[in-house]
Amino acid sequence: MQLLLDFLPVLAFFIAYKLKGIYVATAVIMAAMPLQCVGVWFLKRKISPMLLISTALVLVFGCVTLLVHDKVFIQWKMTVLDWLFALAFAVAPYFGGQTLVQRLMGEQVTLPSQHWRTLNRMWIWYFVFMGGLNVYVMYNFDEATWVNFKMFGTLGLTLAFVVVQGIWLTSKMPKNDDDSTPPSDKTR
Length: 188
Prior knowledge:
Layout: H1 2-20, H2 22-44, H3 49-68, H4 72-91, H5 100-105, H6 113-140, H7 143-172, H8 183-186
């Protein structure tokens, strides 16, 4: 359910763009993001800081886009958000000692501190790369290509990154040495 809620605003943006263009799509995502916050609130009774920041950026960059009638502002929103996330992952260890990725995943995963730092650096570089890739696409391709990249490219790259991260995590997690098979049964 959470994945669907996370995906709906981008899907609404994409559909609105295909039907009515960038400015209607901008207005649609500006309406969809606060609705997403309301939906998350009703489901979880809390809203993540990442969602709040993303919603605020959509509203600010969307307003500027519509006021000055220039699509570049809504296009920059993704890069600004990615680079803010990279910055948050980079500075989090200086405020509380733990990496941000450890704070987010630490209850589900047990890792030595050096692996948490490596994983945190992976996320930093992922966000830096995605922000830079967005800038590259928006300035080197047409608007329709940028919208398709926003819809399909970022989703595909994010899924690929999560799979690679999962494989890496699996290789680094401590092995369970507790073998519950009685010694007498091991010789059979």
